[in-house]
Amino acid sequence: MKIACIGGGVAALYFAIAMKRRQPAAAIDIFERDSADRNSGWGIILREPMLEAMRRMDEASHAAILARAVSWDQIEIRHKGEVNLLSNQFGRSTGRHALVEVLRARAVELGCRIHYSSPASAADLAGGYQLLVGSDGIKSGCREQIGAAAPIVRVQSANRFIWLGCDKAFDRMVFDFQQTTHGPVWVHAYPFSADKSTFVVECAQQTFDGFGFGRRALSADLARLEGIFASLLGDASLTSLSDAPHEWRQFEQIRCDALHHEQMVLIGDAAHTAHFSIGSGTRLAVEDAIALADSLHQGGALPEALARYQRQRSEAVDSIQQQALHSMQWFDRIIEHYSLPLAAFSRAFLFRSLGQAA
């Protein structure tokens, strides 16, 4: 089978690996719009169910990923000057750039071809391939093509967030909620290497407007955030992938009622997104990739295989998206919980993805 992946992120790369493991004769081309040296991003969470699925699929890349991962066993909740330290909360993460490097190398080793600086569309590739895998991320053009045949459901967070890095490796996952003159500002931080951490800041629109965030060079916003989180950061500084105000965004949770149409199928963020507060975006991408490869390997006509993939993924994705939606909405309504004492606030926080306070 000749397969083209439109987009060269984690979903596409892992699908290519999984497909070559299942069918070594498959011919797979990956079209990545960016150059080979433009591989950026901060840390990503490595969920244990995902890692186990990766181990079963391909031990070589699994071992290489673990070698570049860091782990923690505590979550720290900071709220109104108090700290609640929760033990037995194991987690892992790695840098997105490190994960992509491992997956690129393994995909090429298995015989896949990666075409860098090669933006592609379904119209460009349809005649030369039997299957087109839409793996072009959250701003997917492939999704819009399939969306003409079936609804796309979008739910936007009321809050603003920005995904940053800092030059300090925390030894645990930290949620720091700071009260300011313009309202609460909070951060979700975790290490992803020996000397760096992901630092995701979020606040309500009213707070965003009150500080004037997004109206100037981003460096000014970073300086203000360093002041707000000084007790957590110490001497560490915050960094962004650019100095553009548009780095501040509102998260949009997306679900496609159809994951395939004709010879096109969607995986990863092109197919569905889940709010970053539950750390499952990479898990969805990898599990999509494995499910698609397995479904194709089971045989039958292409429409049958793609329909099987959609059936297999629907229930699992719906469950994760429902948890993510509850979590997103909890943060959207954080002012309802903010006056709680630390213990009660921590319980509400920990149970947020279940849609209940305790």
Features:
358 residues; alpha/beta; FAD/NAD(P)-binding domain; D-Amino Acid Oxidase, Chain A, domain 2; six-stranded mixed sheet; 12 helices; globular
Please provide a written account of the structure.
It is built from twelve helices and 16 strands. It is an alpha/beta fold and about 350 residues long. An eight-stranded mixed beta sheet has the order 3-5-4-10-11-12-9-13. Strands 6-2-1-7-16-15 form a six-stranded mixed beta sheet. Strands 8-14 form a two-stranded antiparallel sheet. A hairpin with a 2-residue loop joins strand 4 (about 70-80) and strand 5 (about 80-95). The longest helix has about 30 residues, at about 300-330. The protein is globular and about 60 Å long. The termini are far apart. The model has no long low-confidence stretch (mean pLDDT about 95).
Overall tally of domains: 2
Query: How would the global form be characterised?
Result: globular
Uncertain runs are none
**Strand arrangement across the biggest beta sheet:** 3-5-4-10-11-12-9-13
Named CATH topology of the largest domain: FAD/NAD(P)-binding domain
Our measurement of the CA-to-CA distance between the termini, rounded to an integer number of angstroms, reads: 51 Å
Structural class: alpha/beta
User: In this structure, how is the largest beta sheet organized?
Assistant: 8 strands, mixed
How much is the radius of gyration in Å?
A: 21 Å
**What is the helical fraction, as a range of percent?**
25-40%
